[in-house]
Amino acid sequence: MLRAYVATFVLNSTSISAALRAIADSPQLTEVVGGAPTKWAISRFLAKLKDTDLLQKIMVLVGESLKELLPDLGDYTAMDSSDIKAWAKRTHGTDPDSGTSVKTGTDGRKKFWYGYKTHLVADPVYEIPLAAYVTRANNSDSREFPPSMELAAPFNPTYVLADAGYDSKANNAITEEHGAIPIIKRNPRGHTVPKPTEEWKDIYAKRSGIERIFGRLKDFRRLNRLTLRGLEKVTIHCVTSVLTLMLWALAALLLGSNELIRCMI
Hints:
Blueprint (H helix, E strand, L loop, with lengths): L1 H9 L5 H10 L1 H7 L5 H11 L4 H16 L6 E10 L13 E6 L5 E14 L4 E9 L8 H8 L6 E4 L6 H9 L3 E4 L13 H7 L3 H13 L10 H24 L11
């Protein structure tokens, strides 16, 4: 059943129902995923899955396998988060686990949203996710740095890259305690910020890789096509989306086709 659920993300259908129809219509897909489950069967499976940590355990195992094949994976580790709009309206109160947050866009305007955040730890050079989890939208990035750093630790990062939302003395200290160099953009907070060195800017520029990962997750792996409510179910959705990229990269490496690591089709 898990293979069938993962396949619904790889197929990038507009809905789970559409993906399940595609599986049922293809003898090859039906064989690969071990059958053609109904939507009811998937719903029942998800209800059981939310009471386990199976997906996180799989993510750890896949990360370990990727590290074995790419020993320098995680040397550059980036952290970022992305908003996931709730499948509910704030005023209706149908998803009490959701939260409201705000961020400033590139145009300087503030953007409010109601829902969740997917927190991602990734190698921005290989553009491979390493770990992910979900919180309410109103959990600040800075507050989520310590748990993200714990997820990054097994990859022994040399540099940890993050935007100004993660900047704090405590987070810089945590990075150094893990033997890594913090490349975290300074948040001026009304003060003058020293000009970074060219070396610092070159390393920080690699952070754009994690933004491209989020782009692929949203465009090709259904990350923002949420039709579930509640933190546990939303976590299953978002973590599975991220896991598909990790599994895809692992398959490409095992086949000796490294050029397919970032392929989405």
